[in-house]
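go over this chain:
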Amino acid sequence: MLGDDAGSAAIEFLLAGIVMLVPLAYLVVVLGEVQEQTLGVEATARHAAHTLARTGGLDETFSRLPAVIGSVSAEYGIDPDEMDLSIVCTPARTTCPEAGASVSVTIGADVRLPFVPPLLGLDRFLAIPVEATSVQKVSRFWGGS
């Protein structure tokens, strides 16, 4: 016969379940955050490129762009000040955007992991970078004045 069994299997089962469940739940939360930020960055890039390609002139375009970026990023809980914005026109000429050119807008942001304290910059070190690019064709009849 085996030794005395005091009935600790239930405690071991609960402990093993908790040890496996907590990291799995954290992974689900992190993946949800990454997907939300990815969708937000993609939507911001798409709407910014559309604004650059479809707005009437340079002054109107660049006056509307911060409002568009701010409103779309607010929908997804992204701070517009922490986003990296890059605008490239192809072919590269003196002004961007220009009639007949392609406008490429790239937006990048860092996803901060939940429950990571800002101790010694740990939250910035463990951030996950996400980036999206959108390209729009500017009309040949675009009024760039």
Q: What stands out?
A: The CA atoms of residues 42 and 132 lie 5 Å apart. The mean pLDDT is 87. Residues 9-137 form one domain.
